[in-house]
Amino acid sequence: MAMKPVSTSVWIGELTLDKLQHEMHVSENELAYLQQLVNLRSKKRQIQSPKDAGYARPSVIIDNFLYHGELKHAENKYLLNGLNIGHIINVSDCPLQQDILDHFNVLWINLDDAFGVDISQYFETTNEFLNICKKKDEKVLVHCQMGISRSSTIVLAYLLKYHYDSLANAYDYLVERRRFAAPNHSFFLQLIRYERKLYEKPDVNKPPTIDKK
């Protein structure tokens, strides 16, 4: 059955839509949910001040525990020590310097920020890593190259499993703390399916309303 035409003028390009439909077999309900998430991001960026950008330090996602940043943060030993961060999840194709590896507990998820890359295969690994850090009351930095797509996906997977029962609510929370958090469309779709798996939802029949916790 052919999918109904979707307007691509605002939130998604025709090429991306074609890939979602033919490579990832996105359903109409999943596509509607994805559009809600992208619209939420645009709305948050409009109402937040530009001064929130230009992160000299990683964003604090959960006080005294979870930080979200970029490569430059992970390579700054003085910054990490100053924040008392002892653990790092590197979600990029760039290995960290040996000096960082020698002094911090690093989990490296080596992957590209590209359409169709299977990032969901690492969700349980990164969630377990983060949960162990949380139980020990120890701080962790999750980063990728720019702190936009790959690292945001990993942070959202954690929030979804341990703190929120919907991706929409988790993303609303994250964007308030890191305004440029923006998984690519295929990563978002994998998160939508992860939500369905976690909460045994047969389908994303209706995008949930966004309620803050």
From TrEMBL:
One of its GO terms (biological process) is negative regulation of MAPK cascade. PANTHER family: DUAL SPECIFICITY PROTEIN PHOSPHATASE (PTHR10159), DUAL SPECIFICITY PROTEIN PHOSPHATASE MPK3 (PTHR10159:SF519). The keyword Aminoacyl-tRNA synthetase does not apply. Residues 57-200 form the Tyrosine-protein phosphatase domain. It holds the Pfam family DSPc. It comes from Rotaria magnacalcarata. Residues 120-178 form the Tyrosine specific protein phosphatases domain. One of its GO terms (molecular function) is protein tyrosine phosphatase activity. The keyword Hydrolase applies. Keywords: Hydrolase, Protein phosphatase. This is protein-tyrosine-phosphatase. Belongs to the protein-tyrosine phosphatase family. Non-receptor class dual specificity subfamily. One of its GO terms (cellular component) is cytoplasm. Its EC number is 3.1.3.48. It comes from the Eukaryota.
